[in-house]
Known about the structure:
Blueprint: H1 8-17, E1 27-30, E2 35-38, E3 51-54, H2 57-62, E4 66-67, H3 73-77, H4 82-93, H5 101-106, H6 111-122, H7 126-143, H8 148-154, H9 160-171, H10 175-179, E5 184-189, E6 196-200, E7 205-210, H11 216-227, E8 231-233, H12 237-250, H13 267-277, E9 285-286, H14 287-293, H15 300-308, E10 321-322, H16 335-348
Helix pairs in contact: 7-8, 14-15
Amino acid sequence: xxxxxxxxxxxxxxxxxxxxxxxxxxxxxxxxxxxxxxxxxxxxxxxxxxxxxxxxxxxxxxxxxxxxxxxxxxxxxxxxxxxxxxxxxxxxxxxxxxxxxxxxxxxxxxxxxxxxxxxxxxxxxxxxxxxxxxxxxxxxxxxxxxxxxxxxxxxxxxxxxxxxxxxxxxxxxxxxxxxxxxxxxxxxxxxxxxxxxxxxxxxxxxxxxxxxxxxxxxxxxxxxxxxxxxxxxxxxxxxxxxxxxxxxxxxxxxxxxxxxxxxxxxxxxxxxxxxxxxxxxxxxxxxxxxxxxxxxxxxxxxxxxxxxxxxxxxxxxxxxxxxxxxxxxxxxxxxxxxxxxxxxxxxxxxxxxx
Length: 354
């Protein structure tokens, strides 16, 4: 039997009551302490606004959270497998150790067997878990204003070049840059027409694209370079608002988004994107229509280029732009999605409330 995920409010009530029925079904991530717990954790309960709920330990670790030392969610989950418990105990004793397959062999374990049982249980290998713990701690250390060398040593890296390479690969920025910047958070959002990637900060939405868009990697690189801010996996309050409004949109209950969008693009591009947002749901417009509405009738090609540079899909509805002859023209998420979105908005019609 398939089970649907309870709402976050339901999970928060389960946390408050320490409801064992939800044991292992979801985990709470506390944004203020960067710790994740079982819902039956006996520790003092966090405020609702400081809680995120994840379905797996892998998701918690990918978000940069570390396991609670009081309820030990990873060790409890591994109780039925002595090998898992022994290795997780070792990791808890030395979370900053740079583990390798040689270490596993020295302890008498077969690395391929360890990789298989950890991936089956956690969705990632033991070495991947150890790496995320080590680098997450390094980022936290850098964020406190510590020197790069201090963070390097605390993360267990003997080589400065190795540490810089590892942090740069994970965060998309060198350690020196991480010290002086706030991070952008990238998270998955499921939709009826495929998963999307949302990149947010604590205040605004910076990117929203379908995960299979061919140009996505280039867009992420440009976003990182343009802002001078690293991108890591994680969520913010803005991510939650994006998810809630997208759900309402796909349910046919919302036609106009109320999300703050990051200040990207040239002044002309931003003018085009604002014009896109003025196209009513269920309606379409051509590049020429938009150019004329902007009092720039000769800028049709420039409007088309700005439309293609939009990196906030659906919220900035470039899918509502069609050819002068009524053809669908191109769409980065695929023409089938463009057609689906237009039909969805036409079906929703006047029944959707802004």
